[in-house]
Amino acid sequence: MEPEVVHIPRREEHPLENLIERKLKQIYGSGTYISDYYETEDGNLSIKIGNSFPKDVTDCRPGEEPVIKFIDIDGIAELTGEEVDSRYKIQIKSRDEVSEGLTREKRKLREDLGDAMARATYDKIAQTPAVENQLNPIKQILRWTRLYHPASFEDVRDAQDKDDGKTLQYVRTLETLGFIRFDGKKLYAEDPLNKYDLDDISTKKFNEKILGEVVERGYKQLSEQLGLNILRHLPKFANGYYFDAIERNDPDLHLDLDSIRSNIVDLYGYQSGLHDWVLRDKMDELVSLKILSEDEDYYHANVKTFYKVAERTAV
Amino acid sequence: MTISSQDRRTAEVQIGQFGAQDELTADLPNVLQNMLHEFSDRDGMPDDLTLSERRARKICDTCNTGNYSLDIASRLTAELSDYPFKACYEDSLMIDELKAITENDNCSLPTVQVSPSYFQYCQGYSVQTDSRGSGKDLYVLVMNVNHTEVLLYDPYRFRNKGRGNMEPTQIDKNDFEDAWLGKYEVTSTLWVEGTDQQRITQFST
């Protein structure tokens, strides 16, 4: 549909950058803007484009005025151009490609928010039985490395009895995160692990603290590389609320279950299978973990969590 | 002279027939649909000179980054090819020319693009700007231009959630002109007009 190139004549009365931006708005949508612009002396252009899009962030309590928030995302595509005679020839990328660029950058935004949420609430998330259970092999490696220092990797692997080199994957991740060192045979405890007294190693408190630290340092690695999706689970539901609250910078924003659902669909692309009862259970779990607060039929922020997330995110 | 109560009533009746949008990024297809709906509702106009939501979105190629407005008049004209009507797009119209279009029975109401400065004056909702202090240009349908004020349909004001009756937005003419000119100081305007008065009169007989 769109042209492959557009020509922009140089005009004295308008800056070239504005003329190009106006044309790009017509092609990619009226929220398009130039986020970075560079022109070399010999008339070559390098243009990065961004997109500003509207999001409804209305408080759901009766009588509240609707509020629309614009969210700008830089660098969704890069275009080039050159001066040919007295005109500029701009190579156009397809609308599909630019649309994918926006989707990709939105996904990053969502992941940054998920990361910020996990970091802000790691101690609470690590306490939930489902997460604790999935992190058990991590806990074992940390405990055994500290108890049987330096622990033999073979022994750890045999004791865990996992398939597909899972133990090695966990060890590599814990090494990346700085908890242990692995020389190919033995596992050595590093400072973040060494700081715990041997006497504390088998206590519940150690489990909570060390797992919290692991989640805080390694949320991305654990959830992406090790497929511990459970870590993403609660932050995902929490962000159904927090995305709007952070965008509005308003911890008193009250959202109902419908708005939270539509945010989760928007952010994570859930289409179906999210029954109201299941969603309400998740919200109740978040309330009991003090990640969210509840006020009759509305959810609002836990103020401490809100400021921790806000501080950790550039949204 | 301010907008008279008669002008306002007329605009309210027109807007009462409009459909609200589902998605905030679909402002242009929604305004185009309503532009044609109002035009086809007039005496002597073909009843089915309308666009379905699907066709309107197709013409605008609506996606997450927004709408494709380059050469939109030719796509809209092609869509209306069964009838003696064409879509017209003009850069740099002046306010008096815009007023003339709103008063011309042979022309639909005009769709215009307004810059984010419009949101300072929007009614029925409020807007928080992005981190650049800006936002996205909005498409609105101009319904009446007076000496001092403009009445328009703002698609952001109404959503399919059912937030009360649809009403026209009233804005000071100078503020409207500033937003219409925008940062590039070029206005843009799209409307539909009859090409053959003789054939149009056939529809009323």
Concise description?
The complex is a heterodimer of chains A (315) and B (205). Chain A is α+β, with helices and mostly antiparallel strands and 315 residues long.
Write the layout of secondary structure elements.
The complex is a heterodimer of chains A (315) and B (205).
Chain A: E1 5-9, H1 16-28, E2 32-39, E3 44-56, E4 67-84, E5 87-91, H2 95-125, H3 129-134, H4 136-147, E6 151-152, H5 153-160, H6 166-176, E7 180-182, E8 186-189, H7 191-194, H8 204-224, H9 230-248, H10 257-268, H11 276-288, E9 292-295, E10 298-301, H12 303-312
Antiparallel strand pairs in A: 1-5, 2-3, 3-4, 4-5, 6-8, 7-8, 9-10
Helix pairs in contact in A: 2-8, 2-9, 2-12, 4-6, 9-10
Chain B: H1 5-16, H2 27-40, H3 53-60, H4 72-79, E1 85-91, H5 95-103, E2 111-114, E3 126-128, E4 138-145, E5 149-153, E6 169-172, H6 173-181, E7 188-194, H7 197-204
Antiparallel strand pairs in B: 1-7, 2-4, 2-7, 4-5, 5-6
Instruction: For the largest sheet of chain B, list the strands in their spatial order.
Output: 1-7-2-4-5-6
How many strand segments of chain A?
A: 10
Task: Give the strand order, joined by hyphens, for the main sheet of chain A.
Answer: 1-5-4-3-2
Give me the number of helical elements of chain B.
7
Profile the largest sheet of chain A: 5 strands, antiparallel
For the biggest sheet of chain B, the summary is: 6 strands, antiparallel
What would you call the shape of chain A? globular
Describe the structure.
The complex is a heterodimer of chains A (315) and B (205). Chain A is built from twelve helices and ten strands. In chain A, strand 4 and strand 5 form a beta hairpin. In chain A, helix 2 crosses helix 9. With 205 residues, chain B is an alpha+beta fold. The longest helix of chain B is centred in the first third of the chain and has 14 residues. Chain B is globular. Classes of the chains: A alpha+beta (315), B alpha+beta (205). The interface between A and B is large, with 43 and 36 residues. Strand 4 of chain A pairs parallel with strand 3 of chain B, so a sheet runs across the interface.
